[in-house]
Amino acid sequence: MYTFDSRVRYSEIDHTGNMTLPALINYFQDCSTFQSEDIGLGTEVLKAKKKAWILSYWQIVIERLPALGERITAGTFATEFKGLYGNRNFVLDDARGNRLAYANSVWVFMDMEKGRPARPEPEDVLPYGSEPALEMEYEDRKIRLPENLEEKPSFPVRKYHIDTNEHVNNCQYVQMAMDYLPENFKIHQMRAEYKQQARLNDVICPARAVDENKTTVLLNDQKGEPYAVVEFK
After folding, report:
1. Strand 71-82, strand 85-94: pairing
2. How many CB atoms neighbour CB 72 within 10 A?
3. How far is the first Cα of the chain from the last one, in angstroms, to the nearest whole number?
4. What is the C-alpha separation between 79 and 168, in angstroms, rounded?
């Protein structure tokens, strides 16, 4: 497992004094990015090859969000590479080794020049190795779309939504979706399915469905096709 240590910053907490879900996602994302950089497969290396690992699916389970100043360790490891896809687990632990959060993720290897998936070469995956997957309750990567959807006002993609791949970063979709959570909704699990890439000046058309213990948010294009589907429990 690849790990890095940190401490919860003021910029990473909300009004409760605890880390936000987007901050947690960024720790996971940073952890996998640091690993790629350290093994010689970082963003600039892939950019030169016109390739990138693009996130297709998140399942994040939260046991407890750490508070301001807590010392934490983020960890990640690949569990499987198969065809066009790679699976990766993540963990966040406190200073005593207690598990705060954990996640499963699915990534697709993309040819950024052609705009379609590409089969990675052995040198693209072997340096990561693989480890047995976490013992967790794995849900299906396809999120069932609810019927009782309520449309919300649309908005454009802004510059601050865009990452080095020139599209909306995966965490930004979750941040967008969180704006439609009911008051005082406590997140235990978040799943996100990414279906297409939104770019600068595209228009996001949100729709929301609220059930007893679940809120599902669709972030659609102007044709009603989802860029991302985000489910909170």
Report:
1. antiparallel
2. 19
3. 28
4. 26
pLDDT tens, position by position, 21-77: 999 999 999 999 999 999 999 999 999 999 999 999 999 999 999 999 999 999 999
Please name the amino acid found at residue 43: T
Q: How many Cα atoms sit within 13 Å of 190 on the Cβ side?
A: 26
Q: Output the pLDDT for position 212.
A: 85
Cα–Cα distance, 185 to 172 (Å, whole number): 19
183-218 burial: b if 16+ Cβ within 10 Å, else e: eeeebebbbbbbeeebeeebebbbbbbbeeeebbbb
How much is the mean pLDDT over the chain? 95
Q: State mean pLDDT over 92-105.
A: 98
Tokens, residue 108: 């697709």
pLDDT band with cut points at 50, 70 and 90 for residue 167: confident
Contact (Cβ atoms closer than 8 angstroms) between residue 150 and residue 208: yes
Measured between alpha carbons, how far is 180 from 216 in angstroms, rounded to an integer?
9
CB atoms within 10 A of CB 69: 11
